[in-house]
Write a structure and sequence with these properties.
single chain, mainly alpha, three-stranded mixed sheet, globular, binds cobalt (II) ion
Length: 496
């Protein structure tokens, strides 16, 4: 069977993959190694490359090739690939160039000013820049909505979590909201009666690096195709063939770096195990932001805070940091699963984190759909923090609505992916436990293969072959729902 239009598309996306490889490594280097005076030249070089890649993805010849390829006789994988190429083409071609440029400038201005406005608690200053960012994001949402037929907020979310809608989120998050604040209170009451020893530092950077690498090996990371380095904001970058993870170190705390490493290792193993035969094609890309986050949270939370796994880490902590009574496994587990409502999302524990996300989802959706204006944010924020987390943020913009840079830089529709990831991860592990009922015993003995094999078979090597909802149903036998997440949290935090 010949399919000349498909072949041309596949060759184009292979080329994009090769250029993207270099772009990804230049980007990793900028964050991990580049000296500060390299910044201007690097920014210019990368912008030039961005322009080149954008030119390839918007070449007018692609529109005809896509139409023709969709009528050619293709096998299942090729058809899935064309579907994903169409998605990528849409996202590159959906917006007028002047809007993309205006968004990039307004977002950069607002983000740059935010860096000093946040410590100064300067909401009024932030608001002055943010109004423009919001107005451009609303225009972006309308363009995407007109093109896709989706509602404006759904159209933004579709960039990160294809197929997810506010209608579905309202059901999923509405479910969480009914029981999670009550669960937080019950767990806090239970934990108030427990005594916990807190480990004492300092923990040298070298020892934290060494235990990080050892833990990555325990978690199956392939060091022949990846590295661990340091950066101000941890991330997983590079490409599937050469995956670059970073973490950051504080000498008075090892948990941030070590659990950060586990988180990025989850992202990294997903990337390293995407379908190799199709590398470079969109069908071999990670499925979505939420599915990606489900891998990092599988490693950081499902495995990383599991009592059996902590039993594996405890002797390693003693070996790297020196023995102390607080490194006893049951104590470590109690200490690492303490629940404490707090202002800052990225520092939140597993139980209160989703409440931070639901708060942002509700506000950003109202902003995009015009039910709220930029100046309404603090009042909406204060009300939600008080009702969901019993925390007063009144006048505290710094630790309230100015803590994240997502909205300021123009990023809307991304927040739900974090909590969708946690819900997916709980659903994966419910399925893994059905298949391997003695999972905890095997983990305690150092055998993590049942979890990794399941993830490899059902998630990693599927790439983008299926839509997200198909992937979930094929892997677990049911659509995404909050039941497994609730069971997981109750089992871990109430022991029920
Ligand atoms: Co992540």
């Amino acid at each position: 069977m010949t399919h000349p239009a498909y072949d041309e598309l596949a060759a184009t996306w292979k080329r994009l993959h090769h250029f993207g490889h270099l772009q990804a490594l230049a980007s990793w280097d900028r964050s991990a190694l580049m000296p500060v005076n390299g910044n201007a030249a690097r920014a210019n070089a990368m912008a030039e490359m961005d322009g080149l890649l954008h030119g390839i993805r918007t070449d007018p010849v692609l529109a005809g090739n896509l139409d023709r390829a969709e009528r050619e006789l293709l096998d299942d994988m090729q058809r899935a690939n064309v579907r994903e190429i169409r998605r990528d083409w849409n996202s590159a071609n959906a917006l007028p160039a002047e809007l993309v440029q205006a968004q990039s400038l307004a977002g950069a201005r607002c983000e740059h000013a935010w860096r000093t406005q946040r410590p100064a608690n300067d909401w009024a200053g932030f608001l002055a820049n943010f109004r423009e960012v919001l107005s451009l994001a609303r225009r972006q949402a309308r363009y995407l909505a007109d093109r896709s037929g989706l509602d404006p907020y759904d159209a933004l979310m579709d960039n990160y979590e294809p197929g997810m809608t506010a209608r579905t989120l309202d059901i999923l998050f509405g479910d969480l909201e009914r029981w999670l604040p009550g669960l937080v209170r019950r767990v806090r009451a239970k934990q108030a009666a427990e005594s916990t020893m807190v480990p004492v530092g300092p923990y040298s950077r070298a020892a934290q690096y060494a235990i990080g690498v050892e833990t990555m090996k325990l978690l199956g990371f392939d060091f022949s195709a990846g590295r661990l380095d340091e950066s101000a904001h941890p991330f997983c970058g590079g490409v599937p063939e050469d995956t670059r993870l970073t973490t950051r170190y504080r000498e008075d705390d090892f948990v941030g770096s070590l659990w950060g490493v586990m988180h990025e290792t989850g992202h990294g193993r997903y990337e390293q195990n995407l379908p190799r035969d199709w590398l470079g094609q969109p069908v071999a890309w990670a499925r979505s932001a939420g599915i990606h986050e489900s891998q990092s949270l599988s490693f950081e939370m499902q495995i990383g805070l599991n009592r059996s796994f902590i039993g594996l880490l405890a002797p390693r902590m003693a070996a790297h940091f020196g023995a102390q009574p607080a490194f006893e496994a049951d104590n470590l587990h109690r200490w690492l699963t303490r629940v404490q409502p707090s202002y800052i999302r990225v520092e939140a524990d597993e139980l209160t984190y989703p409440l931070h996300v639901i708060l942002r989802y509700r506000i950003e959706r109202d902003l995009i759909e015009g039910r709220a204006e930029a100046e309404d944010i603090p009042a909406l924020w204060d009300a939600a923090m008080a009702s969901m987390l019993d925390i007063d943020t009144h006048g505290n913009f710094n630790n309230g609505c100015m803590q994240d840079v997502h909205w300021g830089s123009g990023l809307f529709g991304y927040f739900p992916s974090y909590t969708l990831g946690a819900m997916y991860a709980a659903q994966w592990f419910a399925a893994i436990r059905r298949e391997t009922p003695d999972l905890d015993t095997r983990m305690a003995a150092g055998d993590l293969a049942p979890a990794f094999n399941w993830l490899h078979e059902n998630i990693w090597r599927q790439g983008s072959r299926w839509t997200t909802s198909e992937l979930v149903t094929r892997a677990t036998g049911e659509p995404l729902n909050a039941v497994h997440y609730r069971r997981h949290l109750e089992a871990r935090y109430l022991g029920s």
